[in-house]
Design goal:
By secondary structure, this protein is an alpha/beta fold. It has one domain: Nucleotidyltransferase, domain 5 (2-Layer Sandwich). The chain is about 30% helix and about 20% strand. It contains 4 helices and 6 strands, in the order βββααβαβαβ. It has a 6-stranded mixed β-sheet with strand order 3-2-1-4-5-6, sandwiched between helices. The longest helix is centred in the middle third of the chain and has 11 residues. The mean pLDDT is about 90.
Length: about 120
């Protein structure tokens, strides 16, 4: 499965970024092979508005089937949900910790946004 994890850095040892739309990076991980790539999210970090929606589109374009983050706002959640992407929130630790927690069934699957829009 292809999973996107919000991250403060470019690799598996980087901390999970608690923000979705304004996360520093998206680390795209293939949970079957362990291969990963990092995508810079700089176009959304300082966006005045629409960061969650644009980030959601970027995650959908990556081909991911799931997203792991600390928090996801309502507009981003709606975008991800419309794309059929499972959303997992309240993740912490490193990107690898988050992927391991997902594989072990220890992450909370979100049924809705867990924060209001423009959470920073």
């Amino acid at each position: 499965m292809k999973v996107v994890v919000t991250s403060q850095g470019k690799d598996l040892t980087s901390a999970v970024d608690p923000r979705f739309g304004r996360a520093q990076y998206f680390v795209v991980v293939d949970t079957d092979t362990g291969n990963f790539t990092a995508q810079d999210n700089k176009q959304n970090v300082n966006a005045v508005q629409g960061a969650g929606i644009q980030a959601g589109k970027n995650v959908a374009d990556s081909g991911a089937q799931a997203l792991i983050s600390g928090n996801v706002g309502p507009n981003a959640f709606a975008t991800l949900n419309a794309a059929g992407i499972e959303v997992y929130v309240k993740a912490s630790g490193t990107v690898q910790d988050a992927v391991d927690a997902l594989k072990a069934g220890k992450l909370e699957k979100a049924g809705k946004a867990n924060v209001q829009g423009h959470w920073m």
